[in-house]
Amino acid sequence: xxxxxxxxxxxxxxxxxxxxxxxxxxxxxxxxxxxxxxxxxxxxxxxxxxxxxxxxxxxxxxxxxxxxxxxxxxxxxxxxxxxxxxxxxxxxxxxxxxxxxxxxxxxxxxxxxxxxxxxxxxxxxxxxxxxxxxxxxxxxxxxxxxxxxxxxxxxxxxxxxxxxxxxxxxxxxxxxxxxxxxxx
Length: 184
Ligand SMILES: [Zn+2]
What we know:
The protein is mainly beta. It contains one helix and six strands.
């Protein structure tokens, strides 16, 4: 299924899509391995079985060692729908809080490698706030939020699993242990 004529269905590999790229200097609580100071979050722009969510991949980089930079990311050549192709925008990380629960009761997530209770890393939301709850409007957007029809609620125009949120969790014991995710 392909919702966008610009991204034709095709045979062969389909590049993953960049979703977020926080630097350690902006989010000091990130647990980075070695000398890494940059986390790259990518996903496949298609929902996969069994939970109908886009699979994610995390890559830690040392930004000083990244020298051969592409002018534009490759592909994708196909997306399930446009909401899985984030618009480029600046991320203003908010650190802290707790994951939202909506589709299920709160359930602890445990590392498959070590058994430790996993901790929240990132929530990829289908909107940041709505008109009934404007206390979540970022400070930078307060002046324009009331003027801007709906774009200010979701600058990257991401839609996850029909207006839900994709939560990513990591193991506190080691950034080398596999992460996990959850739709809420
Ligand atoms: Zn672990």
